[in-house]
């Protein structure tokens, strides 16, 4: 990108006759021209604006910036300078854009330079959080400024068109299933460990749904990868372990649980179907796996020695995991349906902890007291 002249803080008057020049490709959508360019990261915070937070929603062209998202996006860039990836920003330009192709005919008509007056206003329609993260990352690592990001430029046809553009860009955006997010994450060590257990551990091998985060009624899988990941997160939280230790302990823990839940082995031995087990029992549902992980975490914080924590799990053999058991109503089951919100996870952990003779934490005791009073 080049410039003719220079900008001044004095205002738009001083930028008259000056322009940005972007290398660009010209395209057509819905009968309108648009342009795609590569912009240096250091330029992004300087020229691309987003609406002020205090504007009412009906006069904004985008949602309010969620500042809570920025630190994670910023760390993503800074922690992965060799392999981060950001999709294109989309911006509307309220100035007169002029495109000069490298030739007047043939393919060269679509490749050239895009001239935009410096007095123009650039409004981001999609990517304001990426823009804010780039700005924050540049403050810590200025060397990133020479890297580039794709930007799609549209003509600004007014507020209504900008609002419609934002709605259209996000109308069909669908977040990928959480399971496939875990499956494809090669950076997160816990994701790697969860995948290893799902693929190699005899307890789970061939019985974990690796892509979808929900199971159909006829699925031959016992649980989803995302449910196992949540359970693993709870199991290992706060434990100072290296990768080998984490793998060994997780493997041993789930094998110990497997010995106490005979239905899991019956599915592997084809005496029961996975669909039957999920329908009749609670122990393969996400809330139960999560609760078992939290229970294990409590024991592991007391001792990492399996000779200590394994015997403490023995009372789980006496648990009635049937979904129809009255013990689960109001804890893990509400009106016959499994509920997995935070309060229900806590109440499920409480039930298991009480069977193991473990003390409840203040949060768990508070939830238990409310449950006993009928405040569900």
Structure summarized in a few sentences:
With 376 residues, the chain is of the alpha+beta class. It has helices spanning 44-47, 70-79, 128-140, 159-171, 178-183, 189-200, 225-236, 243-260, 262-268, 274-280, 286-302, 306-312, 342-356, 362-372, and strands spanning 2-4, 19-29, 32-40, 48-49, 89-93, 98-101, 111-117, 122-126, 148-155, 208-209, 223-224, 333-334, 337-338. Helix 6 packs across helix 7 (225-236) and helix 7 (225-236) packs parallel to helix 11 (286-302).
Strand content: 15-25%
Number of strands: 13
| Rg, nearest Å | 28 Å
Low-confidence stretches: 4-13
Number of domains: 2
Q: How does the major sheet shape up?
A: 9 strands, mixed
Please report the distance between the alpha carbons of the first and last residues.
61 Å
Mean pLDDT score? 86
**What is the H/E string?**
EEEHEHEEEEHEHHHEEHHHHHHEEHH
Q: Output the number of helix runs.
A: 14
Overall shape: elongated
Give the fraction of residues assigned to helices. Answer: 40-55%
Structural class, by secondary structure, is alpha+beta
Protein name: DNA sulfur modification protein DndB
InterPro entries: DGQHR-contain_dom (IPR017601), DNA_S_mod_DndB (IPR017642)
Organism: Sphaerisporangium melleum
């Amino acid at each position: 990108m080049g410039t003719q002249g220079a900008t001044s803080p004095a205002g738009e008057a001083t930028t008259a006759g000056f322009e940005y020049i972007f290398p660009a490709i010209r395209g057509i959508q819905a009968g309108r021209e648009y342009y795609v360019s590569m912009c240096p990261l250091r330029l992004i915070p300087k020229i691309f604006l987003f609406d002020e937070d205090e504007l009412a929603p009906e006069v904004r062209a985008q949602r309010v910036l969620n500042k809570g998202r920025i630190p994670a996006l910023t760390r993503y860039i800074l922690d992965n300078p060799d392999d981060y990836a950001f999709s294109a920003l989309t911006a509307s330009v309220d100035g007169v854009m002029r495109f000069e192709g490298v030739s007047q005919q043939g393919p060269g008509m679509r490749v050239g330079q895009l001239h935009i007056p410096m007095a123009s206003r650039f409004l981001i329609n999609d990517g304001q959080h990426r823009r804010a993260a780039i700005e924050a990352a540049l403050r810590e690592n200025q060397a990133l400024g020479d890297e580039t990001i794709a930007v799609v430029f549209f003509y600004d046809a007014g507020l209504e068109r900008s609002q419609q553009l934002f709605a259209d860009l996000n109308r069909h955006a669908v977040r990928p299933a959480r399971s496939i997010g875990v499956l494809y994450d090669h950076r997160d060590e816990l994701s790697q460990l969860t995948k290893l257990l799902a693929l190699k551990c005899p307890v789970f091998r061939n019985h974990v749904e690796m892509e979808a985060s929900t199971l159909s009624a006829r699925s031959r899988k016992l649980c989803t990868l995302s449910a196992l990941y949540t359970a693993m997160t709870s199991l290992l939280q706060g434990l100072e372990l290296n990768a080998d230790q984490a793998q060994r302990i997780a493997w041993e823990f789930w094998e110990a649980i497997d010995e106490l839940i005979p239905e899991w082995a019956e599915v592997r031995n084809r005496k029961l179907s996975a669909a039957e087990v999920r329908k009749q029992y609670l122990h393969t549902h996400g809330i139960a796996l999560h609760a078992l992980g939290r229970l294990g975490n409590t024991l592991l914080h007391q001792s990492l020695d399996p000779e200590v924590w394994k015997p403490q799990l023995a009372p789980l053999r006496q648990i009635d995991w049937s979904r129809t058991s009255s013990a689960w109503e109001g804890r893990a089951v509400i009106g016959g349906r499994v509920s997995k919100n935070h309060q229900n996870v806590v109440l499920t952990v409480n039930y298991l902890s009480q069977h193991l003779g473990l003390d409840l934490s203040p949060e768990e005791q508070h939830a238990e007291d409310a449950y006993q009073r009928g405040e569900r």
